[in-house]
Specification:
Order of helices and strands: EEHEEHEHHHHHHHHHHEEH
Helix content: 40-55%
Number of helices: 13
Largest sheet: 5 strands, mixed
Number of domains: 3
Distance between the termini: 29 Å
Shape: elongated
Number of strands: 7
Structural class: alpha/beta
Strand order of the largest sheet: 1-5-3-4-2
CATH architecture of the largest domain: Alpha-Beta Complex
CATH topology of the largest domain: Conserved hypothetical protein from pyrococcus furiosus pfu- 392566-001, ParB domain
């Protein structure tokens, strides 16, 4: 299996197109005194969780600021564009300066840069957890809602919400997804299991025994008392070829939709399930990049 580009932990600055030649905007990196940086007055987020800021400040005291903030130069100093939460936590932690990526842009150029950043988030070969982390970072840095992130990356609000829920999975399960032992579909199915210990047990069995997503869903329903059975490989695959089931699940992960492939050995059809025209348009854009 080819190694996937790593996106988790790189930060949005790694996805921002860097200026190089001609009249492209200048880019720089520096440690900037906190007092020289002012918040963006257009920042949609106006309130911050004080307890969460204190937790982040404690982390910064121990390991420092691992991800630079994003600023643009102003006549009287610098203006924050992304990373106000880190900037506030750094002040609480008592830091004098903070690492920053500096962009010298006018308003139109900055709008174009933001659009390019979103495009790069979409194009990067990110796994489901990495993508969820990127969306979460967009929300934190730009103050966007689930719906605003969805509109920028051509996904429905519910899709963004469900992807962000992946970050609530136990670390052990997140690690299995990161290593490719489980797919995003498996992870979503495991979210319906409230018991963390049982969820990890099912995740380990699914990875070790090659369970399909439907088998994990059966295990979750069984746990909830919907069925009185344990997942059955026979009932889930029903004599369907393993490669067909695998392709079905890969399509479902890629399109973030329910997919069913019917094949009789000679001809077949792919059935996509969707709820409303909005979701159908999202699937279309995902398939054709429009």
């Amino acid at each position: 299996m080819a190694e996937r580009k790593r996106g988790l932990g790189r930060g949005l600055d790694a996805l921002i197109p860097q200026g190089g030649t001609g009249d492209e905007a200048a880019t720089g990196f520096a440690y900037i005194p906190l007092d020289e940086i002012k918040p963006n007055p257009s920042q949609p987020r106006t309130t911050f969780d004080e307890a969460a800021l204190e937790d982040l400040a404690q982390s910064i005291k121990q390991v420092g600021v691992l991800q630079p903030v994003l600023v643009r130069a102003r006549e009287d100093g610098f203006e924050l564009v992304a990373g106000e939460r880190r900037w506030r936590a750094a002040r609480i932690a008592g830091l004098a300066a903070i690492p920053a990526v500096i962009r010298d842009e006018d308003e139109e150029q900055w709008h174009n840069l933001t659009e390019a950043l979103i495009e790069n988030v979409q194009r990067e070969e990110l796994g489901p957890l990495e993508q969820a982390a990127a969306f979460n970072q967009l929300m934190e840095d730009f103050g966007w809602t689930h719906e605003q992130v969805g509109s920028r990356v051509a996904k429905s609000r519910s899709t963004i919400t469900n992807m962000l829920r992946l970050l609530q999975l136990p670390p052990a399960i997140q690690g299995m997804v990161e290593r490719g032992e489980l797919t995003g579909g498996h992870a979503k199915a495991l979210l319906s299991i409230d018991d963390q210990v049982y969820a990890e047990h099912i995740a380990k069995r699914a990875a070790a025994e090659g369970w399909s997503v439907r088998m994990v869903e059966e295990a979750a329903r069984a746990r909830a008392g919907v069925t009185g059975t344990t997942p059955s490989r026979q009932s889930s695959t029903a004599e369907r070829p393993a490669e067909l089931v695998s392709l079905e699940e890969r399509l479902a992960d890629r399109l973030d939709a329910r997919v069913r492939i019917n094949y009789n050995g000679k001809t077949g059809k792919v059935v996509l399930s969707f709820k409303g025209l909005e979701e159908l348009e999202r699937i279309y854009r995902t398939m054709f990049g429009e």
